[in-house]
Protein 1
Amino acid sequence: MPLFHHARYVLTAARWDQLPADGQPEVAFAGRSNAGKSSAINALANHTRLAFVSKTPGRTQQINFFALRESGFLVDLPGYGFAKVPQPIKESWEGFLGRYLMERSALAGLVVVMDSRHPFTALDVQLLEWFALTGKPVHVLLTKADKLTQSERQRALAQVEMTINRPDLHLPETLSAQLFSASRKQGLEQAESVVAPWLGLAAPQNKGP
Ligand SMILES: Nc1nc2c(ncn2[C@@H]2O[C@H](COP(=O)(O)OP(=O)(O)OP(=O)(O)O)[C@@H](O)[C@H]2O)c(=O)[nH]1
Ligand SMILES: [Mg+2]
């Protein structure tokens, strides 16, 4: 049974005091608005509507917690880089989100979801350089890979690997990346095998060929 199946929604936090008491480890999904964070969580959980997927970018403005069957949480974060969010709302959740990323001790690692057609935007790099200060690991999902041809996928991944190795960027020390497609359910096992140890769970055994 894949590790993230049977995840269930537990709570939504819009303020620090609404977060669950620090205890079990959690992994948060960050990324640009509309990148596919909620869809990635749904695909990993094998659930069509666990996390809310919206056609309108910038709608998720709170932090949603999903409890895993064994222990730990997957956390769906609001997207960044969506210009049409009204300024006061933007500032309040950017403040909360920033504090969550920097100070939340239960946060074991970050999954950064990027559209494989345009990964590592300036905002993504900004987030990564900033999150690097925590010393926590990051795994990048290059999602919507179903929209690329096989050769475009390989090129995108190779370019991302080069970016990860750029010495002029102050990226997290533990940083990996993979192709992913929520709609085709591709890359699920690879993502699980990276994230499971962060949560203190045994990585799933790879199925035979
Ligand atoms: N083709 C394809 N479409 C995807 C994939 N993942 C997400 N989408 C689509 O991209 C849009 C945004 O997906 P969401 O999962 O809501 O993105 P999000 O990052 O959670 O967005 P916000 O919460 O607004 O920041 C939706 O229309 C999804 O159906 C994928 O792997 N392939
Ligand atoms: Mg979302």
Protein 2
Amino acid sequence: MRSFARIAVLAGSAAFTIAALALEPDLPDGEFPVSGYRFMGPQVQQLQDDDFLNPGWFAVEFGAELWQEKAGDRNLSCQSCHGDASESMRGVAARYPQYDEHRTGLINLEGRINEMRSRYMNAAEYPLESEQLLAITAYVTHQANGSPMNVDITGKAAPYWQQGRDLYTRRQGQLDLACSQCHDERAGLMLRGDRISQGHVNGFPVYRLIWRSMGSRHRMFRWCNWAVRAEPHELGSDEYLSLELYLAWRGRGLPIESPAVRP
Ligand code: HEC
Ligand code: HEC
């Protein structure tokens, strides 16, 4: 049944297949990345496609307000420095997470945005998973809509990529299952009413219907950890940042899809 993914996509053109082969993805059997969108039922797909009904748009619109909101001692907004986000933030989200010399560690888009607040604006960082941080992240990510994910895993990022890959393939939890056992080996199969996708991160932050809210990549990792009754890591932890880097690389070439909706 893993062939679900293949059937769906191989039904496309030969050009698609050739492009996919060039990606040499880290997926089994030479499979290439398929967005979670393709694994959803038509109703959820329609919800995502409809700009009026897609609940993720509330976050993007709230993010647009935050972009212009002045804050901190210096009374600056994101816009004060970056101007029009559709220019300055175009494609940016597709390059995160990345190694950050300043922090000497991995940083994701949420982390970069919070760094702007503390370092450049003298404003309080947004709490992880807060409505504000999700909204501004969704807004910035939306400016990369359609850009292929393209993270740098060379140099100082390399050990994080390795850690992420180890976490992805390590069995864990009472169910003793690795991420790869669901998202590589069982993609396309049903699990308690959900169709398991390849586990890509190109739609995040996503609006998940079961959460009735937006959620980050790290919240999703926690959910998946709970699914196998494993102890989840902290939001923003090195483990999840590494996993995020690995997954962004594993799905490289997949276009950013934002705001995405998931069941
Ligand atoms: C028991 C099977 C299972 C395991 C193991 C599992 N997941 Fe998932 N995962 C799911 C299901 C079910 C969903 C929701 C449907 C979907 O999008 O695949 C999901 C969704 C996701 C998504 C969202 C995909 C999208 O397009 O929105 C990501 C990312 C993800 N998982 C990552 C991971 C990571 C990282 C691990 C290991 C820490 C992991 N998963 C372990 C079952 C699993
Ligand atoms: C005082 C000016 C200033 C303000 C205010 C500011 N930024 Fe920045 N921003 C910069 C500079 C300079 C850089 C590039 C250097 C760096 O990353 O530190 C940058 C980089 C970024 C990047 C990374 C771009 C890339 O190509 O990787 C993002 C994302 C970003 N800013 C978002 C924001 C957001 C969102 C806000 C508002 C919360 C904001 N910035 C506020 C000056 C600012």
